[in-house]
Prior knowledge:
- By secondary structure, the chain is of the alpha/beta class.
- The chain folds into two domains: 34-163 and 383-400, NAD(P)-binding Rossmann-like Domain (Rossmann fold), CATH 3.40.50; 166-380 and 409-442, Dihydrodipicolinate Reductase, domain 2, CATH 3.30.360.
- It is built from 14 helices and 17 strands.
- The strands form four sheets. The protein has a seven-stranded mixed beta sheet.
- The radius of gyration is 22 Å and the shape is globular.
Amino acid sequence: MPSNPLFSTRRSFLKGLTVTTAGGIILPNMLLRAQDTPASKKLGIACVGVGGKGFSDMVNASFENEIVAICDVDSKNLAKAAAKFPKAKQYRDFRKMLDENEKAIDAVTVSTPDHTHFPAAMHAIALGKHVMVQKPLVNTLWEADQLHKAAKKKGIITQMGNQGHTFEENRLLKEWFQANVIGKVKEIHVWTNRPIWPQGPAVAPKDAEVPANLDWDLWLGAVPSRPYQTGIAPFAWRGFFEYGSGALGDMGCHNLDPLVWGLGLGVPDKIEATSEGLTDIAWPKGAKVQYLWKDIPGHGEVRLFWYEGKNADGTPCQPAPPKELGAQKLSGSGFYMVGSEGVLYNQGDQAKKLTIFPEQRSKDFLAALPAKTVDRSPTPGDPQKEWSLAIKNGKEFAFMSHFDYAVPLTELCLLGDLAIRTGKPIEWDQKKFEAVGNPEANKLIKRAEYRKGWDYS
């Protein structure tokens, strides 16, 4: 193997640890076994959205539970889910499903396009049901605030579906920060290969006949009624303002999570953004967002830069690599952090392949790893099971991606989106819940109109 800090550091990092088949790092003595959890009855689970990610969410939530009802606006998705859970009642409208099965349902998963997360979760919460909602929780700041307040009022167990938050690597990174792995953090650069769907000028929907398997009216949810258009369902909705949250909404809750949690990043003091190919209806072809925190305890001023999509010339929108990488190119997605004592580089999404520079600091640090002070998840990689165990225990685990944590994380992504969409600096006042001196941004905090029957304010 070449004498390269990246390889030698990775080799040292893995020494003495058990490596999973997925390349993650597990400390066996820190994990809880299912039998260590107090016994409890099976939960009655209802699933809103059972196609794609929703299917795996449903399957994972079924562990030691019963799927009592399933809902999807696409009959093909519903048929596939019904074949897996034939005893579950089938619905196209989640409102009808939740109302008709209120007594049988204990908890609800929501795995739909971003714009329908809010009404589905709010309907379930109003009935006192525990909820697990896919990331991002919602696609407007007002909805995030309302969802948080409703969940707190009902005292339910909540979870966002950013599975990386359950991983061992997130805990390690938090402990590394506590041990000043690279000293005081000054700059963070995070980039993603998203969007992998049309955005910017490439978004050109056309009116068309509704597919026989799709209930378009129910798919729209709170969005005002309009003709069906190509290039939206079932996947490319992410590129539209009204339905999705762009690349930052899609991947921010994954790739910002270990950094936000590890460093304790709260509401930023200022957010600025530039973009390439922004249109009246779609998120841009590419964008750069800068977040500024003036005073993070133990670090001082911290700047975080987010990069997504493509530049005008079609090249990936990425930062300049740190000099420590030499001739090596950046991975397709990842992050690196510049500290007063070194650089920390991660290849890929979340925090799964970490490298410390310079090499001597890496050797010294990894030779005496910090104490394991952060509680481990009993179900690494599986937030549905973690959520289920919390419900049965009657209390949220402090380390979960519950709404007290997930709402601010979602809001951080949505504030970046707000800066992208307006092209103007955002100085956010959390108490007043507004962008200071920015009326254009404030108009976008809440959806302009909710259809009758879909307003949960």
